[in-house]
Amino acid sequence: MILALALSFMAWAQSPTGGIKASVVSRGDKVPVSNAKVALQKDGITLTTAITAEDGSFYFKDLPDGPYSLSVDAEEYTPIQINVLIEKGNVRNLMFVTLTPQQSNNDLDDSNFAEFDLDDSGYTDAPTILFGSNDVFTSVAGYGFSAIRFKNRGYDSESQDVYLAGVPINDAITGYSPFSLWSGLNEAMRSKDTTLGLSTSDVGVGGFNGVTNINAMPENVRPGWRFSALTNSALYRLRLMANYASGQLDNGWSFAFNVSARLGGNDWVKGVYYRSFAFYAGLSKKFADAHRFSIVAFATPGQRGAQNASTQEVYNLMGDNMYNSNWGYQNGKVRNSRVRITCEPVIILKYAFNPSSALKAEATVLYRTGYNGYTALDWYDASDPRPDYYRNLPSYAYIEDEDYNRTNEEKAAWSQYAWTHRGKEYNNYQHLNWDRLYNVNYNNPDGRSKYALEERRVDQNDLNIALNVKWSPLDYLTLNAGLNGRINRTENYKIMNDLLGGTYYLNIDSFAERDFASNEALIQNDLDYFLKNGSAEKITKNGKYGYDYYAQIRRGKAWFNLTYKKNFLTAYAAGSIGVDAFWREGLVRKGLFAGLDDEGKEIIYQGKVLTTYDAEGNVISSKGKSATSTFLVGSAKVGIAYDFIGGHRISANAGFFADAPTFNQSFISARTRNSLVAGLKDKKTVSADVNYQYNNNGFSVRLTGFFTKIYNQTDVMSFYDDSQQSFTNFAMTGIDQRHLGLEAGVKVPLGVQGLSLSAVVSFGEYIYTSTPHMVQTVDNNSSIIRNEDVPYWSKHPIFKIAGYVDGVPVYDEDAEGNPIIQGYQKHYVPSTPQLATALALNYRTSSYWFFELNGQFFTNSYLDMNPLYRTHFACGGGDGVETPAEIIYMTSQEKFDPAFLLNLSVGKSWYINRKYNIGFSLEGKNLLNNKNVKTGGYEQTRLISSQGKDRYYRFDPKYFYMQGINYMLNIYFRF
Amino acid sequence: MKTNKIFAALAAITLFVSCEEFQPVFTVDYENPSPAKPVEMTATHTIADVAQMYTNGTFKASEYYRVKDYIVVSGVVSTTDQPGNFYKSLYIQDETGGIEVKIGKNALYNDYLPGQKLYVLCQDLSVGQYGLGSNGNGMIQIGFSDPSGSYETSYLESPIIINTHVFTGEKGNPVTPVVLKESELPGSSDTQKTNKNVGRLVTITDLTYGWDDPKYGDHNEAFVLLYLDSNKDKKASSNRIFISGSGTGITTWAMSKAKMTEYLYSGIWDNVYIGNAKDYNYGTVGDRKGDGTYPTIEKAAGSVSQYFHTPSGKCVQIRTSGFCKFSDTEIDPAVLAGTKKISVTGILCLYQGNIQMVVNNIDDIKIQ
Questions:
Q1: What is the pLDDT at residue A122?
Q2: Which of A413, A424, A451, A465 is nearest to A165 (CA)?
Q3: Residue A581: which of A611, A547, A553 has the closest Cα?
Q4: What does the alpha-carbon distance between residue A544 and residue A548 come to, in Å, rounded to a whole number?
Q5: Secondary structure letter of residue B319 according to DSSP
Q6: Residue A878 and residue B231: Cβ atoms within 8 Å?
Q7: How far apart (Å, rounded) are the C-alpha atoms in residues B276 and B279?
Q8: Chain B neighbors of A384, CB-CB under 8 A
Q9: In chain A, which residue's Cα lies nearest the Cα of B161?
Q10: CA angle A536, A540, A542 (to 5 degrees)
Q11: Average pLDDT along chain B
């Protein structure tokens, strides 16, 4: 139980007798809690009770001097007790009595967040906003905007600081919040503290996109038994969960466990399925009131099938925007080729020292280990097995525009036929043809597999230490401070998951083979093995192959946050400083990037020197340690808030952040070599916000204006390019972006008890502001394919149009014959609506029914851009001459259509003898069954040459769509 | 009552399991599919018949050489694209001749094994000729219609076209090459109909390097066509470099990108003109030397025809792709010097009336 006495002061009251008054508010953002039952007790006997008013206030008058105890109990909050002493006939004004929410209102949980981590497309599995707080904006937007993949204020997932038990848990390699580590453990992980935007937290300074600390300790888990069964149509059909927590027992022990299973597929995306389990156990013991030791362990082993993006052509052919090309039938059974297979246990040890209300210190050790695999088809010298490979589509044979030189309408009609007819005989054209892959492998008499299922492993060993202190030397001054340390060694490699009917797979780089056929050493994935044994290794099931390297990360950071809080004024200054270092350590020697041998000599095979050098003369090496990149990181933040009488609050925050680039954005091709992205710099961010809040009489208002500028970001994209017959890598540096916007939430009571209307809006402009630099490399040789600026990244010119001929614009020219530029079109930060609004009608009865009708509108969402299309090279075409038509066509950024969504939820809970609680919640999402809402996607980084070779065309982009109508029903029982 | 409940529970589970969405949940090990069974069909025509139908105009240019009737030819696969000298295409042969089936996928040898019987349903496909020139015939092929007009046929490419027209039969009967006498070699106007060796796997012996062209009176050793920029118009004279005749300096069967770069940098082609014959208005290769890296000349693989002659002086070219795995294999100096003869086993092709041998692999070329 946390008792927060925000402020207390002695009033020289005139009344002859004493009293106690206060407002009951929710923890975190101080929303008033009405209808709370407050009981006044003296010597264990209840004297009187009061119900808090709309603004959460209560007042006990005419009390004689002496010690009293208040117990405060409100629906959905953890009850608390407070001791109050009345002296000299004064009225004690406690200002705020803070309650911790026991659960979010209608028992929704993050189970519905799509675990959407399509690595290859940059998607992650993070929910948009964590809704641990009772902020009026987040309570509507946090859960409600997840289906559209709304990003809070347009920020990336990695900007969201997530802590687990006081330890920063954002992934050491990517920076993303690793929610999948504890997904399915909703009960154990429910208790969390959330701050928004630039606000600081008790566990760290935080960044500019909020801090969430998931408590995860057994004493924080809601006591009692709880069982739930959930079925939903969006992700997995069935979730079964059981949970027990003891609460703190009289002997000081607390323990809790939580288990769950998530099984099945969904209504929309075939091949996506869950076979996931989750286990949590926690034990803690409090000694002598001041010491607490806790140990927690959890894991979520299991597997789930993934979804893939396709082009609009494929979706239209299939008549389904939810088409998934990852699966096919094997012996008549659905099999997905992209399966995430994980088991990453986490162990937390915590010691907390809490000698007085003025001092609290914690030391936490968190260790994450296990494996994280992701399967994919691999093939050697065989045709691309993906059903939606672009050459299998009608557009590869015929496009109306003759400039594409695709004129075979009849061939296109055949392909069209294969895609648009339904039935068993067409399955192998529309889905993976597993049976064929096996048959190809059977055809090799020596058992060599041509097709195989690889499993890309990212296995972390992540050791974290956090020391946190909270000290209030004076009642108006609080110092939070801490030290964080991290040692992370992540091994990246591939194992052979399934040989698909063969007996071995050869460990060579099939992409290199085409270019370097004459030198067998160059195509080796493991040159040392080849030199020792004279041939490449034959990989059998579960054997390591391909690449193998450690990502090594070391971090240390010290931070503080000093808060001054007196009367109505709160002010803080916070800062952190630290070191972030990382390097790559190659564990195998790749033939193409042989480097030097153990004695530092060049490696020679059959008289040819294998060792290669980059443009600066440095050895390009795949094995051994790379140079260590060390960055000084830090942050500084200040903020001020003032509470006015009547529930108004104004606050402002400002911050500066210097962050290291993440490991995965720092190497041009970490799979193959130690080479760092050239010009790697730390990312700098300045950010500020101003907030107005009002909470009174059931009204809630929050209005926030924010401004953030991010400098020097790096982005590395990597994908298979069949024109290069290799993995190709685009490293972009110097990406700046600016986020400017408003965020508002209003909640208005509607006269009838329990009925309220909420409205939220998030409106911003999130744009790119710099000209980044791009370097393109491929995995199968060391040369740099392209090395140039990306001039049309942040904007493209708008040319003056003289008129139209057959609907095609003709561009005006000046006297010198140059096109006339009238202005510029900005390019936007993608994959989130930059205008998002919602209106929610909420009704909650005293008999525990609730209803919510929710309408949402989203617009100004844009497609993720690739850098290649924004270069002079791409706009110039084969003749190198950039025309207005080429520039407009090639550089424009797609804007998605607006979307309107309607959602309804209803729930009820029953209390039986005040001991048993049974309830359900039923939610219908996207009731209008809108199936045409793009949530994201990406441009393919490829060009098509025109017939006259004087211009280039784009490949079609790939999209993700939001699902249509969905249900979720959760039934729970607890006691 | 209790049994009813159990039954209901079982029924519910069965319902779940039978549902496709639960298949991957409950299938821990996917069983290996059984091997595909060979198709049994009957050929309605021989390869020579089809060639004859082409020659007599059954398939009309105005209809993109489309086959309208139910015609099935069968034959045994005689080529492999594994080493890469054949690409996206394969040859089948019966007793009457051999014919190319332009399937249009990579690594066909995985699905269509050398020695496997194939049945090709020609209906809706096209039968056309490639390589017809003023000097003579090219090869009659099975492909798909090509409305672009570039060629008489295009590749099948579309998976449904392939799967509904090319059927796989019994495996394991590799063809044995026939050793040809000089008299059995085709003339420039032969086809699969008039000479059964055309399009089949054959062996030609006693070949000596180089060939004297009686028509122009010059000596030919090697021939290759390169482009300054393959991204630009390949038919433009200004974009073409012909390296031909004698003294080309090419000592390999073909040249990969790396080998081509090596040849170029060595300066052996510096005196070669850019442009088609009789259009030498674009300077020489040497003019573009720059800093020694010939920056305006694209570095790319090149396919090479190496010229040989039979004892009676008949020309036999060995045509090798720059993309195949053995492209950079050096020709034995003794062969180049004409002191050693070779025998070659490959598909006997005609290109503009000239004999071109296309080998499956490097060991199909043997020094005698």
A1: 30
A2: A465
A3: A553
A4: 8
A5: E
A6: yes
A7: 5
A8: 106
A9: A414
A10: 120
A11: 92
* Residue among A270, A383, A516 minimizing CB distance to B106: A383
Phi and psi (nearest 5°) for B184? -85, -10
A808-854 confidence digits (pLDDT tens)? 999 999 999 899 999 999 999 999 999 999 999 989 887 888 899 99
**Helix extents (H) in A743-871:** none
Q: How many angstroms from the chain centroid is the CA of residue A516?
A: 40
Copy the structure tokens of residue A633. Answer: 């990181």
What is the total residue count of chain B?
368
pLDDT less than 70: residues of chain A:
1-16, 27-31, 44, 75-76, 78-79, 100-134, 514-518, 722-725, 914
Q: B165-224 pLDDT, tens per residue?
A: 999 999 999 999 999 999 999 999 998 889 999 999 999 999 999 999 988 889 999 999
Q: Which residues of B touch A407 (CB under 8 A)?
A: 147-148
Contact A161, A168 (CB under 8 A): yes
CB–CB contact B160 A878 (8 Å): no
* Contact assignment for A263 to B22 by CB distance below 8 Å: yes
Give the sign of the dihedral formed by CA A165, CA A171, CA A175, CA A181: negative
- Helix (H) or strand (E) holding A673, with range, is none
Residue A64: how many CB atoms within 10 A of its CB?
10
Q: Give the count of alpha carbons within 13 A of A333, CB side only.
A: 17
Tell me the per-residue pLDDT of B80-130, one tens digit each, with 9 for 90 and over. 999 999 999 999 999 999 999 999 999 999 999 999 999 999 999 999 999
Q: Is A857 helix (H, G, I), strand (E, B) or coil?
A: strand
Can you name the residues that pair with A853 across neighbouring β-strands?
A841, A904
Chain B residues with CB-CB distance to A515 below 8 A: 256-258
Q: Residue A524: beta bridge partners?
A: A508
Q: What is the CA radius of gyration of chain B?
A: 26
By the 10 Å C-beta count (0-12 exposed, 13-18 middle, 19+ buried), A343 is classed as: middle
Distance CA(B82)–CA(B84), nearest Å, equals 5
β-bridge mates for residue A563, sequence order: A478, A572
In sequence order, what are the residues at sequence separation of 6 or more whose Cβ sits closer than 8 angstroms to the Cβ of residue B206? B310, B311, B341, B343, B368
Are the C-beta atoms of residues B35 and B116 closer than 8 Å to each other? Answer: no
Give the burial class of A4: count Cβ atoms within 10 A of its Cβ; 0-12 exposed, 13-18 middle, 19 or more buried. middle
Q: Following CA atoms B46, B50, B56, B62 in sequence, which dihedral angle do they give, to the nearest 10 degrees?
A: 160
Q: Which amino acid is at A604?
A: I
Residue pair B175/B76 in contact by the 8 Å Cβ criterion:
yes
H helices of B87-199, in order, are 159-165
Contact between B169 and B42 (Cβ < 8 Å): no
Residues ≥6 apart with Cβ < 8 Å to A130:
A110, A142, A160, A162, A192, A194, A210, A212
Tokens of B363: 């060991």
How many CB atoms lie under 10 A from the CB of residue B216?
Answer: 9
Residue type, B361: N
Q: Give how far B321 is from chain A: nearest CA, Å.
A: 13
Q: Are B129 and A389 in contact (CB under 8 A)?
A: no
Q: Report ipTM for this prediction.
A: 0.92
Listing DSSP states for A887-908 in one string gives: HHHHHPPPBPPPEEEEEEEEEE
Banded pLDDT at B2 (limits 50, 70, 90): low
Instruction: Please name the residue of chain A whose CA is at the shortest distance from the CA of residue B149.
Output: A407
Res B42: pLDDT: 95
What is the least distance, in Å, from the CA of B150 to any CA of chain A?
11
The pLDDT, as a whole number, for residue A559 is 97
Compute the distance between CA of residue A240 and CA of residue A184 in angstroms, rounded to an integer. 9
Q: Determine the Cα–Cα distance for residues A112 and A274; give it in Å rounded to an integer.
A: 13
pTM attached to this predicted model: 0.89
- Give the ranges where A479-610 is alpha helix by DSSP (H): 510-515, 527-533
| Measured distance CA(B226)–CA(B276) in Å, rounded | 11
